[in-house]
């Protein structure tokens, strides 16, 4: 599990991105690079990191489910994810 401080920092970035996304889009449309540079750095979409909703793990993230590979495997083997079955041939 990721440290609580890292998860909290990422959540703060998500909130800031949501807050400034409209203003950022308007400034981009106008071509105002100076105005864009005055926005907070953490409001940039490139600062966001995909993390597991359950554990906060940044690596092995599966976008479709919003989980890391470890959490996905745990839930899939318990049968908690609909439509996912273990492969057998």
Q: How many domain units?
A: 2
Largest sheet: 2 strands, antiparallel
What's the Cα radius of gyration?
Answer: 18 Å
Helical content class: 40-55%
Secondary structure layout plus pairing:
Blueprint: H1 4-30, H2 33-38, E1 61-62, E2 67-68, H3 69-78
Antiparallel strand pairs: 1-2
Structural commentary:
By secondary structure, this protein is mainly alpha-helical. It has two domains: 1-49, no CATH class; 50-89, Irregular (30s Ribosomal Protein S14, Chain N), CATH 4.10.830. Helices cover 48% and strands 4% of the residues. The chain contains three helices and two strands, in the order ααββα. The protein has helices spanning 4-30, 33-38, 69-78; strands spanning 61-62, 67-68. It has a two-stranded antiparallel sheet with strand order 1-2. A hairpin with a 4-residue loop joins strand 1 and strand 2. It is elongated, with a radius of gyration of 18 Å. The two termini are 34 Å apart. 7% of the residues are buried. The model has no long low-confidence stretch (mean pLDDT 93).
Keywords:
single chain; 89 residues; mainly alpha; 30s Ribosomal Protein S14, Chain N; two-stranded antiparallel sheet; 3 helices; 48% helix; elongated
């Amino acid at each position: 599990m990721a440290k609580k401080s890292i998860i909290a920092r990422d959540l703060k970035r998500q909130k800031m991105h949501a807050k400034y996304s409209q203003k950022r889009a308007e400034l981009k449309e106008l071509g105002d690079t100076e105005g864009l540079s005055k926005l907070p750095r953490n409001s940039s979409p490139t600062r966001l990191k995909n993390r597991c909703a359950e554990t906060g793990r940044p690596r092995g993230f599966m976008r479709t489910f919003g989980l890391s590979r470890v959490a996905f495997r745990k839930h899939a083997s318990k049968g908690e994810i609909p439509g996912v079955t273990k492969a057998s041939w």
